[in-house]
Write a structure and sequence with these properties.
homohexamer; mainly alpha; 2 domains; two-stranded parallel sheet; Ferritin-like (chains A, B, C, D, E, F); Manganese catalase family protein (chains A, B, C, D, E, F); Ferritin-like_SF (chains A, B, C, D, E, F)
């Protein structure tokens, strides 16, 4: 069950409202790198977390923290929209700084939300929940979480670099810090479970006899005019400790030509496609 | 530039066509764990791969391999749809095995595609390209790729477990094998670049002074009625080698109450919301 | 800032797991009538609530309650999926009850989530955040909330009618009860603000001179072969207290024929469309 | 069956074409507050209107009127795009007014539609039909319609405030007027059916014994650091006339901790998750 | 401006309601081959039809007819849902015919719409308006319309083949007939404008000097292991009358290797990617 | 099986990078008129191509060429983003040319992709695979392909007209040329199969007795205030050679009024809707 405090997790201040930055911040709310995504991803992973209950608790606890991050970002967007113009004036358009606002801001911040945050990204595209990656496999879920927090910190860094607002930089430095931890939090669970070698390949419960292992350890170079690049991926022991890596430079098709024959008479095809023998 | 051989990468045989399995296989084509996703993800990562050209070449080369996987799966779907009924008959409905087909198959395999594969998932939802994760940051991209290949191998394992068709099991054992390698291929790039410690936190180019590092190394327990679970995430040196982990069990809000005051008079709010002082 | 208790808001028990009911319950999680929608709608309305802070607090407080509803439903889905088959067997298909499961369950509960809840509706379509209606106008927001809770209680009623599981019926009777209250909670805010007459038309801050009021109070009957139905909408004082209702039975177009003339020469049109005079 | 007159319902004139306003107007066509939505919503509600045929006729009649509104808005968009530049010139970019057009207009008005309207919103996101709320319950449908018309009039008001074009203001004053009526038209049906008390809770056909009525009349305050705000929602007779409102300030979880135990061996989980006892 | 008659364009009868066929019919309402799509496509093409006003009138007139088709299909869906069960009973599940209904019907017909039509396809995926193809180029628009009507008639044929209901077959034979005409109606406009040779290539207003015409008339065979198939596409005069077709069997890349160099220091990349020289 | 050369199909040069043009080019990558769409459309049509194997080979071969087009466009986008600013500066905003970039560029090129291409359109909306039109009917598929290539060449022409960059114009002249051919390539297959008359109506395998042919050859004029426009569509032999065209100027409804009666008692309707007799 959830509860709420009326104060924000961390102070959110804006020195000089900027409607265009409000639009950019939306990426951190409703983008695929954003906070709705991680909040919901951890929440739904918790819904299906079987096995060690500590992991379920961590998933739900961090999902809860991420909800607090959406809340802070939502307030940051509203503060950046304070003072945005609600009517067009040619005078405004002639001021190049206001002009960038007119042109580069999200018009739906004015038209639809009444100068406040929306669950959309920086292009105004609503977040859709297909981006909640939750497989019921703890290994796959942890990797999805590290990926999400990596994308999140890349985004927070770019927002930090973009703005020249002191309040916003302070707030973003907090988000950057939490992403630093969260990347490692999920990797620490992998450590706790014996490390990457023990967890690979994911799922590690797939019996080896379900796998054509002669195809499990080579890099396939499909480039016609270049040899495979040399590196760790083509030589030495495999990271899962089960084999050695190699390289296949000139792959040949192993399968058949996929011909389907004629269409059925009553299947809505053109007459030319129908094979009466069928 | 791309080229094509008319044969498949690996043989695809179906012993006993099953329209319901055709529907399940769609998840491996158009699902978020599927092959369109990885093909396009590696392709677009290659489009923005700056730095080491070896990585760009690997991304494009493996994108090309994944295109061949879509092709095989597409053929597998068509083969499983051979013999599916194209008209309703109450007799058919009374046969429980056919019944499952009538009920459990994707009706659009009949209505829309004429008994062949579609770029949709097992619910018939079309793949959308927002699932192409490509940040321009090699670390974040590699983690997204490991996550994708982990989800992919979980799915292939579940499809393998579901079917009792020998041809399909052989084909899926090939996909399972390639996913085994691809998980490790992207991790091997991390190894090549100095390993996880060198790459963390992602992006590792963010200056530490842009980060509120006092918030970078603690686990935040938001559960009111339980202490944080103990484990690697709460103690010992951090995985990035920069600090020590700790736990914060009773977090207090650090920020303000987010009150916005009144609405502007001409902003389309209700009169009650308008603060004349504004 | 958000917090969490490790226990559910209300007990969730399933007497006899039913994977098909798991699929139906998804509508209450990820459907447009579902709990993700109301949780996020109240949250984002709170993000933009200007004016009376009591309303902002109520929006956030009830958003928090709705998060707890998602959590309960997520657990209900997982419990209904306990024991679902993970491999196909013709024997299974011959059992008509299992058959309904094979045919009527969501295949992604097996393939994608590992037998747990997903943020999708009963068709497996992911929830998308465009359904978060939040205008910054308290009147419009309250009406959207009453509508959402009405759809929600219709859905809960239909789920209650469908299932014969005692545990599920008990759980749904709780959701039905909370929806009863929430419908009235948002209407009570309208009462608090002077009632419907004071709030209409929404927004009530639009100056009457911005409105072609000669078109504000008649029912327009566009049916060619029937007169307008008689009733409250066509006679008596208007609900906003500003006028009287009437009926316009044979509407004539008041505007012009919308002809655009020729296309520009370099606008990518066919040559036939281009008007050289332009 | 539908018919068409070649003239518009109301005159649509543009004094000074403005491509940026064309983009803003799109919200009234393809936005969730727009005319496609209400046209289709009333149409599909009519498709499922059981009971009083007068209501079905009103739904279809007003759906038809809303189609005429899309038509007028579509023409308004095309008129605002007359004269928009179809090639980039640095000179153009240096003129700040044209600059706002270059930056703030929808590029697909040039690239995709050839300077005419599209079924998209002000961000260029296509309308999707999931926003057609039609439940088969007249009470829920009427509330959804009031909500839609409220959002619509908020939008029309904001567009009116934004533009300085006399022709556009005249046209928008007509839309504002019709929204005034349509809000009340749907509320008048509630009146006709006995008023809000008779219609609540929606659905009013749910037997009280299907409802845990001990949870039906209290406001749940989930805020940890504040008491519930006082008001109509917490005291006095309930709006449905069945009970009295109260407040629950310190809610405790009533349910269990949702632990799922181990994963099945062949379910694609990690080995650590599998409970052999299962 | 639109008007409505209260009767349907053509009689719609269902002899024996079938909830599964209701689900299949949805493809003709909300599928990409369906009637919402053509209604909206012709409508928006009319919104941007510049040049010959006869074409605009035909587009609007046929858009209006297609609205009447949605209406008939909507009624057909509701009639097929009459008598569908609203509660689960194990007895029902044991009846294989009912079983197919339980499994194969759209659960949202029960849960969401109250046994009536929805603007979704046969998978329950809502129609989205991105499928409205309207370019402002009459040639491109006519080809899109022929394509749409071809897909539509393929679908109607498949629905006709599927059902054994006399009423439904009669109704579908009407839709098949109208699609026959509409395919030819749009091709007849091409005829009226001088035929395909005059209209090709689309747009025919593109100056030849904007085109690398040395690449305009050869078939490019990208298959490595097969020569190009022989046929009309590789020999003889081009259909636009401007040249002769030929075949290029062994295409070589003409362009450069696309290397991007290093990333900018402050662009959120990994340190390894950054080229200090940049 | 697919292969790759490391060089581009055609040279891609940018003389003067322009981030706004990068955004416009996205329409040719991820727009409905773009290259992902045709690549995937031809690919999936090949997956279901029954009958003449030459057509399947052409579909796959051209799908492969279109993949090479995405690759070139992806590189063109990255080149246009070289030098885009990664931080806001008021000085920048005052330069009107840079200003257009700030306002008119896609912010996610900075925030999400790190200055490279994404699988989205010019509004930043991700491509979704529902736009892959593949019916299993060769006639319908060919028409869909001509339509796609027509829209594609309209778009390439508009991009050519927009840009003043010599490198980009050269590259676009190549795309325009290939679209010229591809339009005719698919029409040449129609020629090869006997021409349009032989292929119409699509599907030409539908038995005439499944069609209410008395409704197959008239133009239906639904305009109340205008007669049908005269032209080829209303007179002369039909294009399929089966009949003569005519015009129906004053269509009357042929069907019934669609009344559904009352709702079922336990179907979640309002009490007023329920007909106890049912």
């Amino acid at each position: 069950m959830f509860h709420h405090s009326s104060k924000l997790q961390y102070p959110v201040k804006v020195d000089k409202p900027n409607p265009q930055f409000a639009m950019l911040l939306q990426q951190a709310i409703g983008g695929i790198e954003g906070e709705i995504r991680v909040a919901m991803q951890y929440f739904f992973q918790a819904m299906g977390a079987r096995g060690d209950d500590r992991i379920r608790d961590m998933l739900m606890s961090t999902a809860t923290e991420e909800l607090s991050h959406i809340e802070m970002l939502g307030h940051a967007v509203a503060l950046n929209l304070e003072g945005a113009p609600v009517s067009y004036q040619e005078e405004t358009a002639k001021d190049p700084v206001m002009n960038a606002i007119l042109g580069g801001a999200n018009p739906r911040h004015l038209l639809s939300s009444g100068l406040s945050a929306m669950p959309v990204n920086a292009n105004g595209v609503p977040f859709d929940m297909s981006h909640v990656y939750a497989t019921g496999n703890i290994g796959a879920d942890m990797m999805a979480n590290v990926a999400a927090e990596s994308g999140g910190r890349v985004l927070a860094t770019r927002l930090y670099n973009w703005t020249d607002d002191h309040g916003m930089k302070d707030f973003l430095s907090f988000l950057i810090a939490r992403d630093t931890y969260h990347q490692q939090q999920w990797l620490a669970i992998i450590e706790e479970l014996g490390g990457m070698q023990a967890q690979l390949p994911i799922p590690n419960s797939t019996p080896e006899e379900h796998e054509a292992t002669e195809h499990s350890y080579y890099y396939l170079n499909t480039l016609l005019d270049k040899d495979a690049p040399k590196g760790r991926w083509g030589e030495g022991p495999s990271l899962d400790g089960r084999s050695q890596y190699s390289i296949k430079n000139t792959p040949e098709p192993l399968g058949q030509e996929p011909s389907l024959g004629g269409a059925k008479p009553n299947s809505g095809a053109q007459t030319d496609q129908v094979d009466p023998a069928k």
